[in-house]
Design brief:
alpha+beta, 9-stranded mixed beta sheet, 5-stranded antiparallel beta sheet, 13 helices, disordered C terminus
Length: about 475
């Protein structure tokens, strides 16, 4: 695991190599000026300016590569005060408007697999100015869809679609908002997916509506009402959301009246929320095919643990797409709500982060992220290794001292206490398999088994050497 100092040294040497002309000009200018040539002063000043940029460039590159949150990343208390803990606002690339007269309907994802994703870069940052979803960094997913046409006829369509990385969770959740030609009475020949609206229908993006009397209703995962709202919005040319909220008092009277009619109908006959994910998620789960960070119980530095370093959980409140990408994920402007371990008041922080693609594919399940806190409590490092395990990107297995294998379900309640237990005892285990037979884990074996027993029955045990059940 690379330390921040190691990253800075590497970036400093790289910046020094790229800006090596600066020190050369500085030395030449100084020498010439001392020999009485006045133009040497200008050359030396230019060289000094370039030389001074070396630590600045190295520091900026280190900050971009090393996801650390500090005091300067905190935002004002009132900046996101209207956001609840469950709020999630996403600013994703807009989809094509589709053909005129097309009907907006729902499509269920029955199966999905990654068809193509082959960016040309390595681990460097690539910027496509003005393009928020370049083909190079947009996965192509092959899907089998069940389309609910306007005539309530359900037909299946198979094809390949480019999925913006921020909207991958809509595929996993299994609910999409699509446009079809009303003339297609059978299987539609063309299906255009509205990706930001699909993320809304899937429940990744939250949605609240304030009615004309000022009452707020949460319509997240109320698919029938949301589809009706989307159709109204499409007909009137768009309805503005402030964060995750539509305020009917800010709309024109005819549009507000149509939204209010939906709200009245929902109060009379409330719609049940759709499940977080439609049945059959395993047939749509792309996490094993997408790049990202391998999940694990995490690295622990002994000095960090002894001096009071610890773990906390934060939650993403907002993600905004940008035009910069890395191979394993897009660079996003994010807002996180951090809850200190000592129970003090939570605070929000804004930070530009590279978010792994495999994590984005399960964003409808969880928006939690694990932070490693410095001993003095002033710095928070985003720990994608632990985050991937906690989010269910990777599954965990515990091997007991007598060799039994206990597979933990994705997003098991046991994961968080186990991570904290290992961190407090300075036990590193970067892998998702926690083997209690090893010498370094033997001293926490009893405590680990207590955590598992406190959480109730575990999945069926497996003898050493046998393959555990697939979740």
């Amino acid at each position: 695991m690379r330390s921040r100092t190691g990253v800075f040294v590497g970036q400093f040497l790289f910046a020094a190599l790229c800006c090596s002309v600066g020190p050369i000009f500085l030395a030449v200018g100084w020498t010439v000026w001392r020999d009485g040539e006045p133009w040497g002063l200008a050359v030396g000043a230019g060289g000094a300016a370039v030389t001074a940029l070396i630590p600045v460039v190295a520091s900026a590159a280190t900050r971009q590569m090393f996801p650390r949150i500090t005091r300067r990343d905190r935002v004002r208390d009132d900046a996101y005060g209207s956001y609840g803990d469950d709020t999630f606002v996403m600013w994703a690339p807009s989809s094509a408007p589709g053909p005129p007269g097309a009907h907006l309907v729902r499509a269920d994802v029955l199966e999905a697999s990654l068809a193509r994703y082959s960016p040309d870069g390595e681990a460097t940052f690539t910027t496509h100015y003005g393009d928020y979803a370049p083909d190079e960094f947009t996965p192509v997913v092959r899907m089998r869809l069940r389309v609910h046409t306007a005539q309530d006829v359900r037909s299946e369509v198979t094809g390949e679609w480019r999925v913006p990385s921020l909207c991958l969770s809509a595929v996993t959740a299994g609910r999409l908002a699509v446009l079809v030609d009303p003339a297609d009475t059978g299987a539609p020949e063309r299906v255009d997916v509205l990706w930001p609206r699909s993320a809304l229908l899937a429940g990744t993006r939250t949605c609240r509506v304030i009615d004309l009397e000022g009452r707020t209703a949460d319509v997240t995962r109320r698919t029938g009402r949301q589809l009706a709202q989307m159709r109204i919005s499409r007909e009137v040319g768009g309805v503005r959301m402030v964060g995750d909220t539509i305020d009917l008092r800010r709309l024109d009277a005819p549009t507000a009246a149509r939204y209010a009619e939906l709200a009245d109908r929902d109060r009379v006959r409330p719609e049940e929320r759709a499940p977080v994910s439609e049945p059959g998620e395993e047939a749509r789960l792309l996490v094993d095919e997408l790049p990202g960070k391998e999940g694990g119980f995490g690295h622990v530095g002994r000095g960090w643990s002894r001096r009071g370093g610890h773990l906390v959980r934060a939650r993403f409140l907002e993600m905004r797409g940008r035009t910069t990408f890395q191979d394993h994920g897009p660079v996003l402007d994010t807002v996180l709500r951090i809850r200190p371990a000592d129970g003090t008041r939570p605070f929000d922080a804004a930070r530009r982060l590279t978010v792994p693609l495999d994590y984005l594919a399960v964003l409808h399940h969880t928006r939690d992220v694990v932070l490693s806190v410095s001993p003095d409590g002033r710095a928070y490092d985003v720990d994608w290794n632990r985050t991937s395990l906690l989010a269910g990107v990777t599954t965990a297995t515990v091997i007991t001292p007598d060799g039994r294998r206990i597979p933990l379900p994705r997003r098991s309640d046991a994961l968080w206490p186990l991570m904290n237990l290992l961190a407090s005892h300075a036990v590193s285990n970067p892998a998702p398999v926690l083997d209690l037979r090893r010498h370094r884990t033997a001293r926490v074996a009893g405590a680990v088994m207590d955590v598992l027993s406190d959480l109730g029955p575990t999945p069926a045990d497996h003898r050493a050497g046998h393959r555990p059940e697939q979740y």
